[in-house]
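S., here's the first fold you wanted:
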Amino acid sequence: MEQQKQWVGIDVSKVRLDVYLRPSGKQFQFNNQANDISELIKQLQTFTIEQVILKANRGLELEVAQALQQQGYAYLYYQSPARTRLCQSQWKVGKDRPN
């Protein structure tokens, strides 16, 4: 029997990666460092993965994204709406400045 495809959410912080799989409901935690990222990839390989969604966090997700890409996983970045609005407001201020 074929495994059910899983969607993976990874909440990235400076210290930890919180990993959630849906629809299985499984949860894992890994340290945000190279050795544990390798363990995360090994864990994901035991499932049929449809998509990975990374919560972007000021570049802290880049090492995980690179590892996912090297293994051929499709992933997307998610950035919180509040952070997006902050970045957009800073861009508008910069754009509107006189030369």
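And the second, which I think is the more interesting of the pair:
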Amino acid sequence: MTKLTSAQFDELCEQYSEIVVDRMETADLVEYVMNDLQNRYSQMSQTELREHIIEMENSGDPTDNLYDELAENVDVNAVGTCIVKGTDYSECVDRLVQSMEGN
């Protein structure tokens, strides 16, 4: 086995990565990127993710806050799921009340 320098090894990794990507179907690439992004974002704290989303997605308008919109969607979806699948309806009611209060 040839001993490579660090720069040579980096180049080898880059070339092999290109070969692997060239073999992948579009759906495989999308799945890979989705998994990578989900893993990256799930490693962030809520505050870090909120700051990242604000930095990357918001127009600067204070009312334009994608993180808050997504959080609201998750909360509304959680209430709907709880009502459909839940067995502890008191928890569903608490979630519904919280979502109506904007918490």
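Why I say that: The two ends are 61 Å apart (CA to CA). The CA atoms of residues 19 and 47 lie 38 Å apart.

Talk tomorrow,
H.
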